[in-house]
Each structure stands twice: as structure tokens, then as C-alpha cells.
Amino acid sequence: MSKFKEVADRIKSSSYTVVFTGAGMSAESNIPTFRGRNGLWSKYNPMELATPEAFRRDPYKVWEWYKMRMEIILNAEPHEGYYIISKWEEKGYVKRVITQNVDGLHYRSGSRNILELHGNIFRGRCISCWYKVHFKEAPSEIPPRCPFCNSLIRPDVVWFGEPLDTETISKAYEEAARSDVFIVIGTSGVVYPAAELPIIAKQYGSTIIEINIEETPISVYADYVFRMKASEALSQIDKYID
Ligand code: APR
Ligand code: ZN
Question: Thinking of the domain 32-75+121-157, which architecture would CATH place it in?
Fold first, then answer.
């Protein structure tokens, strides 16, 4: 029996399938990943752009980079793999999507039970009064200012050295433990605490399915590994999901 059919049968017979995604899930939507060939961190220094210290030092430079990324994402479209995941959610197979991505593509492609571990690039928050703003497009004036207290607005994403939202990560741990199928797509599995989720799922007896074009620390304990692009693997599996 083909591995695709085996995995499709496992998903159909599952009681709680969870999908866990990283930047590789958006690579085929032309949104750059962070690591690997042409990754963002091979061109930019994260310590100058994705830390609270960097923002304190030069908020304009940080916003220039986020504005550029927002524009790339606004011009991007979710690929077929995204729509397969939201269809599996509609059919009741996928109970939760946990993503490290801040691009909002899971929501745009119809998924609704989403946990955004690292925030969302289209949300900003005031550094003083925590007022939240939602950006429909990249802010024209950067750095944007709070309409209430005029302090700086920062991207509402998790930077290096910052804790994740406690409620979000605890919920994600719960979901990983509760899952009986845990599909890991397009993550290098090196950034914690997110990288702990597949390990927790495994410890609680979940079937681990990895979809990634390269080997990762997750591969060694995955029950199924599809060494291929996200949209290809998802559409092959979807052929057997009625
Ligand atoms: N299909 C499947 N996997 C892919 C594809 C693709 N088309 N293209 C790339 N990949 C894989 C790469 O092999 C790599 O393992 O996606 C992974 C991307 O890894 P990273 O760029 O490290 O992204 P991610 O794991 O999401 O990073 C985690 O690090 O910088 C922080 O906050 C940032 O959320 C991010 C976190
Ligand atoms: Zn404010």
C-alpha cells in the first residue's frame, strides 16, 4: 500500500489530528524561509531586526524590514496545500493548526482553529499601553505611533529572547498531547519552545508525520517522512481522503 494511502487512512481514522507548520509551509507561496538556502537569516542579522534590543536601538530599521515582509506576504497567495489543510478541518479530521508563521496564510485559506505561536505580522502593539492595531496593509508612516498615547507601535510578533504568550503555548502543549496524529510541515525544528511540540506529541503516542524537503531533528522519530514539498505531499495524501 502506498505511504500516501496509509497516512490518509491514519488521518481518517484519527480522533484528533493536529497540523504544525513552519516557514517551509509558505515557501511555495513565495514567502522566504528563515534558514537553509536563501533563508532570511542568510541575508539579514536577526539580532539587528528581531530582538527587543534591536527595536529599542533602531525602530525605523526594524519597521523597514517588517514593512518589506508585509508587502511580500500581501502579494502572496496560499498554495494548494493550505486549502487541503482547511478542507481537512471542514471535514472534521484536522482539529487544530499550530503555526510558527506570522503570515496569516492559514486563516486566509480558510483554517479557523489556529494557534499562532509567534504572533502575526499584521498586528501591532503599543510598547506603553499595549493598544493593539490591525494593519490591512503595511503602515505608510514608520515607526507607527499609538493613537492613544503616541508611544511607538511594535510588530506583535515574538522576537528572539522573548517569551511566547503563556496561554497560547500552554494550549499548544495541550493540543500536542491530545493529538493522535501530528503532521509537522516545513519546520527546521530548532527553535524552542515550538520545537518541543512534536516531541510531546510523540511521548503521548501520536503518529508523527513529517513533510519537509530536508532532514530535520524531527525526522529521526517521525513514523512517516515525506521528503518533498508541502503542496506535493499534501495533494498526494489528499487523493485518498474522500
Ligand atoms: N516544503 C516543505 N518544507 C520546506 C519547503 C517546502 N516547499 N521549503 C523549505 N522547507 C523546509 C526547510 O527544509 C526547513 O526545514 O522548511 C523549513 C524552514 O525552516 P526555518 O526557515 O527554520 O523556519 P521555521 O522552522 O518555521 O523557523 C522557526 O525561527 O526565526 C524564527 O520565528 C522564526 O518562526 C520562526 C522560527
Ligand atoms: Zn499606547
Answer: 2-Layer Sandwich (3.30)
